[in-house]
Backbone:
């Protein structure tokens, strides 16, 4: 079996005149606490602190980054333990599923998944050989055994990972019971002190094409006592739920739309549109216009209540129709699309872009907009900040392209540091570590080119690793 | 005269901590046989093994990469010996044409053409000084004299270049007589053993806007005995010709469409559309829809007969209207266009994308789709693989961008190695050599960043140089 | 206070095997005269040679690169001395405005503005400490005092900066009085010999959506004696003003359109369209079509009179509606847009693209078109040349992307060297210096990769720094 080595210089520039600078910058930020202001971990983990299951349940079957790659090479999802819709559990032995991953681990060469997994294997579980067919059982047993111990419970990992705060993402219809339980725990004198915040993600009650949209509005009415089928009641219900989320610690909202379109309708137009999108059938154009209008409405509510607004546009969800029919959402078939921002954001920015107290954090899956559209917009509008390289671009080369293409026009201070945006809890330190290494390498390169002094880079390294995220998200 | 030097370290990373790794990786792949699974050499060369003509006929007038650059700086095509339509040959002395190239060779600084030509000059013809005005005649004579010798016949060059297999591209209307002659030669005990395969390129009978489309259908009817003006007969004729091509050794089809649009019509819709596109005049929309539908049909036939399907979309052909009128096709005026894939490919992929036994190799001229669309699609769909950096991007920087932007999301194993896609036979080893150098340099960089071990890079170098192409094209 | 250091190796590659080559190349071009063939300095400066005002008036309030960044972080434009429309001057103390810049100078880390300003501080004003709160007054006094001296008059700076020729940009309605004054001065035996040319920028009389378009046509009629509301008279007026500009030394025209659309209408179509766009209200489509048609008309006039044609497409002007209402144009809110060239330029190129005596210099704000569209177009059409990395891309990384993505397909000789395109006069040497450093670093890298010989790179360095601009603009 081959040794598994996480080299201390990994991801640093190779140039001998640059690497030592990167090392020095990184040394000062490697140990900073993790601010995780946006992601998809499950608050239940921290509320109930139950052990995770076996290696496959933890690291393989829930991670569509991982199984999409196996699938792309002809391995069926069933073979690794995924369950088709309506199926009542899998008959696949999790150890057998793990072996498939091990036998095909060469497929991940060069991918961020490989880097994150290797960190989890080496740093979280202490494994010292590479994952391959020969080490599959060693891996499976080591990981599964560890997960049964106290040290691998969610709260213990949170503490060990040096997380200062982590944010989950919930629907307005969520009762936030887990967050309430965590807050109660926080309040106990000898209780666990981890901070697990929620974020207000209203897509299920804003997107007329969301599964169960009208049911969701009914639930929203029930929850709030407002008539969510009446436009004014609908807005009041949003305000009420936002206030509830804020009272539970939320500092941000999040909006995952197919495009970046915004609109700023008159009340009369909005009411008429709302009547149409809450009817039996909705046209694509009406759905798009309503989503667009609601982004501007949400920005207005953020001006009122101070919640930071995140926009995540540009994914074609569930591109693989037959896979979606069989397995449902989040199966690795969401594909980025070209996304236009200049015209799309203008209605919202014309209305609220000059508000210095509003923060809109914009993400993109379309790197072509970095230098062309997003950096110029963020380098001008007080309300607009740029989220880090997102999703497939949350990778060493992706982050380098982000800094290379954003920095000269937007500067560093119109960006908001790093967030991991993941449900793979164990990979969170690895992801932040990659970001810190890449940012330190980037800064070191510019120091070596005499574009800034090393003391400036050292300040920036801390800002990018820690301070900017904390400040932008008001944490 | 200045010396002509092909430095052994050319195109390797300059970083002293990376270059030695690149050298080691390259050393192990430099001598591997050439797999050339897609290109446009003329099978007649290998069937008849006649000598090539003079230096200008071989290297200047047929190569639109070369003469487009001269043309862009105001040199007329007539001056270098190209013949306008209907003209009966050129009165230009080929030596004079060659002198024009020599005098303007500085224009090629920094271009891949310069690199390929210098390889041909130095390695194929043994020239030791740079091409410039002063060396024009030396070059012309050296090359022209060599071409008259046995060692420069097509088969001798094939053997000397260490080509294992080369694929040409033919219309379904081609009788493949040259390929038959080569197969017969292969079968002779002491015959030449070179493998020259064909690929099925049905654009002339699929694209309703192809010159002579209806004539082509008539010929297709004649060839097959099917009524190619009847939709069912038309499909049967395709099946028959595909079977014939396969019987002659073809393992792949190739489709050069203006866009990546696919469609999946019902039989009734397809029949009605076919009636319209085979009529006297065809609308742009109908032509586009028929091409789109036929890509899906061809994928279906590939599922049946196992032929690998290549798609080459995104060129605006013959952009220069007056040049096209005077000189015809392939005169350096084909210009890449922005190309959308996410919506375009969905009909085909929804129908056949999950077929693990189907291989669709997709090329693009639009690098913006690398990280955004193509890598995510290929990193998910079992049927989809990514062709190498194509055409203008078949260049050192173009290949680097390809690897940089594709690898993290698609991995290496959803790509298919290198192909040269050229009709410039003598440049084929140079092109493969450039690709091997760039890939080894790319891998060396990642080794030096500790993103993989050197033994992994060594495996990958062989895969990218040889194995992946052989496997993907079933050679 | 921290020292301000302009390191002699700044912006060179850091690789120890490349940097010495870059140094050698740069040494030979650092002192070459500046050719500034396109920009927006004020000819009045050179005609009247009056002193500039204080530090803020010179460097802060007119430079939207600088104040947009402050604004993006919540600093109001009023606070730094900008005056809303209709306001009669500012009550802000320029020293107080300067202090705001000083206190927030960290925002500029990593931006080209920081690099240009630091050059102006260190090289033009001899400052030896960094700009920060503690040095704000020292800076303000040093700069303001210097500006009152003879050595900082516009002509003295022109001479000191080693400018060989500088081009401004004027409307056809301009009487070019300042240029006339400069020419008269040039003619005096002991007069100042600086060359300050104009360029013909007809947007105000070509774009039907330009503020005051019909008034402008009235003025054009008055100036020329032609009826500029009649299409033939309108064209004659253009010819007359172009001839006047040429007689005053202009060698170029410039066209700033929202898109790159061109059209080639018949006379009858053009006359009918002209009647519509000169009427009371104009549709967006008619305005676009007229601009498109006029680009082709202007190209035709350039074939006649030999003026070089520049096209600057792709900016969404005045994106921030409320800021525009309050402060007007050029306030940092012009945002680049995706720009299509392949279809857009075809009408013009079909008509005039094969004219070897015509030079069209094309700029873009959309880097995605570099390798995909512009390099292939310029690598084919004799009339087309590529302007340098423009605007936000006039930056170290922007220039590197330009060379990286353009060179392999367009070559170096279809580009036209550098131009600064600025109204910030003092930054001009800094901008040319950045371009020379980046180009030398780029060439050094390719030498070190053995893609060209060092003597070839040395020739190219001079071409890119000096010769190409001079030749392309016929200076």
Residues:
């Amino acid at each position: 079996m081959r040794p598994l080595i996480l080299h201390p210089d990994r991801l640093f520039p190779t140039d001998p005149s640059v690497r030592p600078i990167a090392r020095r910058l990184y040394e000062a930020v490697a140990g900073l606490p993790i601010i995780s202001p946006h992601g998809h971990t499950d608050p239940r983990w921290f509320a109930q602190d139950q052990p995770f299951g076996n290696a496959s349940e933890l690291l393989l079957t829930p991670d569509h980054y991982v199984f999409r790659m196996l699938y792309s090479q002809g391995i069926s999802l069933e073979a690794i333990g995924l369950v088709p819709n309506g199926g009542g559990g899998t008959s696949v032995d999790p150890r057998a599923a793990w072996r498939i991953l091990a036998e095909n681990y060469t497929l991940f060469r060069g991918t961020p998944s490989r880097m994150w997994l290797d960190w989890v294997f080496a740093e979280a579980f202490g494994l010292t050989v590479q994952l391959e067919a020969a080490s599959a059982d060693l891996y499976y047993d080591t990981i599964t055994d560890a997960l049964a111990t106290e040290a691998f419970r969610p709260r213990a990992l949170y503490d060990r990972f040096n997380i200062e705060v982590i944010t989950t993402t919930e629907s307005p219809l969520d009762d936030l019971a887990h967050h309430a339980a965590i807050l109660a725990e926080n309040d106990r004198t000898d209780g666990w002190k981890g901070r697990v915040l929620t974020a207000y993600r209203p897509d299920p009650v804003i997107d007329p094409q969301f599964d169960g949209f009208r049911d969701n509005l009914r639930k929203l009415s029930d929850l709030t006592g407002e008539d969510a089928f009446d436009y004014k009641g609908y807005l009041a219900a949003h305000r009420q739920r936002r206030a509830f989320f804020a009272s539970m610690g939320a500092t941000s909202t999040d909006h995952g739309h197919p495009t970046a379109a915004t609109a700023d309708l008159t009340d009369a137009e909005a009411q008429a549109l709302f009547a149409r999108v809450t009817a039996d059938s909705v046209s694509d154009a009406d759905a798009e216009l309503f989503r667009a209008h609601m982004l501007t409405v949400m920005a207005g509510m953020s001006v009122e209540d101070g919640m930071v607004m995140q926009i995540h546009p540009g994914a074609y969800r569930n591109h693989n129709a037959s896979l979606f029919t069989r397995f449902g959402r989040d199966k690795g078939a969401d594909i980025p699309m070209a996304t236009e921002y200049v015209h799309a954001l203008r209605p919202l920015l014309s209305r609220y872009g000059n508000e210095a107290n509003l923060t809109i954090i914009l993400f993109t899956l379309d790197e072509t907009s970095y230098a062309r559209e997003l950096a110029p917009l963020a380098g001008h509008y007080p309300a607009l900040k740029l989220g880090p390289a997102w999703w497939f671009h949350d990778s060493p080369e992706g982050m380098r392209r982000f800094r290379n293409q954003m920095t000269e026009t937007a500067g560093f201070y119109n960006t908001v540091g790093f967030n991991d945006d993941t449900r793979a809890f164990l990979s969170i330190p690895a992801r932040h570590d990659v970001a810190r290494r890449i940012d330190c390498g980037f800064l070191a390169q510019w120091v070596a080119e005499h574009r800034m002094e090393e003391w400036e880079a050292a300040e920036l390294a801390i800002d990018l690793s820690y301070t900017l995220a904390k400040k932008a998200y008001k944490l």
Q: What stands out?
A: The mean pLDDT of chain A is 97. Strands of chain A lie at 34-36, 163-167, 196-197, 252-255, 308-311, 315-316, 335-336, 360-362, 384-386. Chain A has two domains: 51-152, 155-472.
